[in-house]
Amino acid sequence: MQPPPGGPTDLAPPQIVATRPDSLAVLPRFDGDVEFHFDEVVSEGASPNFGLGSGDLEKLVILSPSLAVPEVHWKRSRITVRPREGWKPNRVYRIELLPGVADLSNNRNKTGAVVTFTTGAPLPTRTLRGRVVDWVTQRPRSHALVEAVLLPDSLPYRTSADSTGHFVLGPIPAGEYLVYGVIDQNNDFRFDPREAFDTLHLSATGDTTGDIWAFHHDSAAARLTNIALNDTLSLALTFSQSLNPYQRLPADSVELRLLPDSLPVPVLRILPKEEYDSLYLVRPPVDTSAAGRARADSLRADSLARARADSVRADSIARARAAAEIRIPGAQRRRETTPDTVGTGPLRTRPALFDKLYIRVPTRLRPEASYVVIVHGVQNLSHVTGTVRQVVKIPEDKPVVDTTKKVKPDTIPKRPVPFTGQRSPVTGRRG
End-to-end CA distance of the chain, in Å? Predict the structure, then answer.
């Protein structure tokens, strides 16, 4: 049944009006379902809920401390949840319904709900807060999985981070926790071994985890995947995984030998790209010719014109805001108090990751010669140390073609060929 046509369009998302049982209730013999009641009929979704975790409603429910897919049922304006293994005695249960429930008009709500109750255990009073950061991009990870494992019982309590990477997990039982911050790539709210993560141990008195920097853990040492010639005095080494950004290898950790006699070649430095560029990057010389000065003046004039245009635009925006403040009192104040939840760029509390190292030598590498490169003590992010070895062949020198010189056109006029009246021995025509 639907309302008759011609009425107003339904643009309001469904709202949760009640939950059952009441939150923070103690129910020793509870054997029913946890229910979320809405103010209208909600959609079951396109994917049915068969207990595989692929249903549209199953993806919106996180039940702790169970890792199994819960039983989720749709009952028009209600959603019922219960653990597949049944309710266990003397436990604290936390059922979280994430935002995203839609009505029949496909309007989705933007707020969720949490129901916490116990089946005989003491009422929980602890709440954990923190943020999950992707170390590769150095940015907060939205909708990351957070799993707090209660020690020594190993009971996992899970939640999802918001769009800014922040999370609030509670109330949960008191005690020590091992907190996981996981980049949930398949969005199943479960920690898979190949997903990027990081952990920290939280004492019984701490409630703030700070930033959890997630990265791919690997128990195997890093391998060399490629060695390329960076310039005539350096080689670029590419590894199979990110390296420990806090490690700086000494020069004697590198063995560079010229084949076939294995003659040792001295090594000055082995550094990541940023530090190598800061030490050895060759700056282009300043062009002091008349054409170079004219080009620099033109670029300077363009930059001044852009700066002047930006200043004019900023002044016009400021005048428009001042006019809006006069027409609508309090508009500027409301705009200034709006929090910045997006962020301005990557976080700098930890160094950026890299998978390349550059070797600098004091003498020119021989063209068409082969070298064997051996690096000892290379550490990956999991601090697994290994030794890498590979042979590289230096390419031959190619002549440098100066493309800046323009070929002058032929200004000598071509003379017309006189008519002789004789036939050409090639074409047979008269010319």
Answer: 96
Other C-beta atoms within 10 Å of 209: how many? 21
Q: pTM for this structure?
A: 0.75
Question: How is residue 174 annotated by DSSP?
Answer: S
**Can you tell me the distance from the alpha carbon of 146 to that of 190, in angstroms, rounded to the nearest whole number?**
9
Beta strands 197-202; 176-182: pairing state: antiparallel
> Hey, what are 95's tokens?
């059922």
Query: Any alpha helices (H) in 55-191, and if so which ranges?
Result: none
Residue 161: name the closest of 186, 201, 128, 131 by CA: 131
- With b for 16 or more beta-carbon neighbours within 10 A and e for fewer, the 320-343 pattern comes to eeeeeeeeeeeeeeeeeeeeeeee
User: 139: exposed, middle or buried (C-beta count within 10 Å: 0-12, 13-18, 19+)?
Assistant: middle
Token pair 């590498």 is found at: 365
Report the residue count for the chain.
431
Quickly list DSSP for 283-336.
PPPP--SHHHHHHHHHHHHHHHHHHHHHHHHHHHHHHHHHHHHHHSTTHHHHHH
Is 50 exceeded by the pLDDT of residue 334?
no
| pLDDT per position as a tens digit, 366-383 | 999 999 999 999 999 999
Q: Which tens digits make up the pLDDT trace of 268-303? A: 999 999 999 998 876 666 667 777 777 777 877 787
pLDDT at 240: 95
Going along the chain from its start, the domains and CATH numbers come out as 11-122 (2.60.40.3710), 124-217 (2.60.40.1120), 224-280+350-393 (2.60.40.1220)
